[in-house]
Amino acid sequence: MSTQNGESHKTIAPMNMKVDVEKRNLIDYAANLLGQDRTRFVVDAALHRAEDVILDRRVFALDDVAFDAFVKVLNEPRPEETERCLNTFLSRPKRWK
Fold first, then answer.
1. How far is CA 35 from CA 11, 25, 31, 32, 53, in A?
2. Distance CA 43, CA 49 (A)
3. 3-state SS, residue 7
4. Would you say residue 37 has pLDDT above 80?
5. Does the pLDDT at position 17 exceed 90?
6. Is the torsion defined by CA of 78, 79, 80, 83 positive or negative?
């Protein structure tokens, strides 16, 4: 939902955590180097890690013949049109953003 000035309303949920002082100080130092506050830094890092975990969990269940065919297709040169389509696909916004 957007307001008249284009701002969106999002439900905000608290995330509370405990961490030892040395770790907190390291996080604060890194956040400060980037000009961010602790919350923004931790949320950005957690989101990046979550995306990596989700993308790494994609499973391809293929028998030997199908796997060999899949690898063959990956290793073949792609026509220009296919390359353009692939680049368009890869430049789309991620579903979780």
1. 25, 15, 6, 5, 26
2. 10
3. coil
4. yes
5. yes
6. negative
| Cα gap 81→73, rounded to integer Å | 16
Nearest Cα neighbor of 76 from 84, 68, 88 is 68
Residue with tokens 């199908």: 66
Identify residue 70 by its one-letter amino acid code.
F
Counting every residue written for the chain, the total comes to 97
- For residues 19 and 16, what is the distance between their CA atoms, to the nearest angstrom? 10
Both tokens of residue 5? 């000035």
Instruction: Give the 3-state secondary structure of residue 8.
Output: strand
Give mean pLDDT, residues 78-88.
84
Q: How far apart are CA 57 and CA 55, in angstroms?
A: 5
